[in-house]
């Protein structure tokens, strides 16, 4: 089985406009460059895996059906622009949850590596060519924790975190998902 370079992409603030806990589909809006960015990865045979913390489930703001509905909507919006994601993992947990199903300490809430490990078990991922693109320090720590190249974007919380947070383990800092994808291509083509 051929192993593919793989980009793990955060959702909120990276693919879609950061809008807090998204409890209604009208608040789910792709960045205007998101589909193009993902389509470029598709065209280069690079695997696209979305990894997203959805603690709104654990916190009781919405349920998993809602999260799945938004993900169906996201895939449809991308598909209408010729882009597709190969897999998607989300973490519904949060330590504050009143529901024991969600309050248990998990290994999937970023920056824990659980979602990446699941992808490694289920998909043909080339471990030597893994990237994480996201807008938060936690995304870059996920990259650090999994041996991926961390690419931090300035959209979403990015600009603010770059000012406020110290020691963000990003290998690259760039404007947005599209410029991040160009970074990925340049690094893959160097090999
Ligand atoms: Mg984010
Ligand atoms: Zn989790």
- Please trace the helix and strand order, writing H or E for each element: EHEHHEHHEHEHEH
Overall strand count: 6
Structural class: alpha/beta
Radius of gyration: 16 Å
Based on the structure, what is the oligomeric state of the protein chains? single chain
Highest-level CATH class: Alpha Beta
Query: What molecules are bound to this protein?
Result: magnesium ion, zinc ion
Shape: globular
Strand content is 15-25%
| Main β sheet profile | 6 strands, parallel
CATH homologous superfamily grouping: HAD superfamily/HAD-like
Q: In the residues, how many domains can be counted?
A: 1
Please report the distance between the alpha carbons of the first and last residues.
Answer: 20 Å
Features:
single chain; 191 residues; Rossmann fold; six-stranded parallel beta sheet; globular; binds magnesium ion
Textual characterization of the structure:
By secondary structure, this protein is of the alpha/beta class. The chain has a single domain, classed as Rossmann fold (3-Layer(aba) Sandwich). Helices cover 39% and strands 19% of the residues. The protein has eight helices and six strands. Strands 3-2-1-4-5-6 form a six-stranded parallel beta sheet, with helices on both faces. Helix 7 links the parallel strand 5 (149-153) and strand 6 (172-174). Helix 1 runs parallel beside helix 8. The model has no long low-confidence stretch (mean pLDDT 96). The structure holds magnesium ion and zinc ion (ZN). The site of magnesium ion has 8 residues, from loops.
């Amino acid at each position: 089985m051929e192993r593919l370079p793989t980009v793990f992409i955060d959702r909120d603030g990276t693919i879609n406009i950061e809008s807090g806990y998204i409890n209604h589909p009208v608040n789910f809006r792709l960045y205007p460059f998101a589909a193009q960015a993902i389509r470029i990865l598709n065209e280069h045979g690079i695997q696209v895996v979305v990894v997203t913390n959805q603690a709104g489930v654990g916190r009781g703001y919405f349920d998993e059906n809602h999260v799945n509905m938004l993900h169906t909507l996201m895939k449809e919006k991308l598909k209408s622009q010729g882009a597709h994601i190969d897999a998607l993992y989300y973490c519904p947990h949060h330590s504050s949850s009143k529901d024991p199903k969600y309050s248990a300490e998990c290994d999937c809430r970023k920056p824990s590596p659980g979602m990446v490990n699941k992808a490694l078990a289920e998909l043909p991922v080339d471990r030597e060519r893994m990237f994480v693109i996201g807008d938060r320090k936690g995304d870059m720590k996920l990259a650090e924790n999994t041996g991926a190249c961390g690419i931090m974007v300035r959209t979403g919380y990015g600009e603010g975190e770059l000012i406020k947070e110290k020691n963000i383990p990003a290998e690259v800092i760039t404007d947005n998902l599209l410029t991040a994808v160009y970074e990925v291509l340049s690094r893959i083509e160097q090999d």
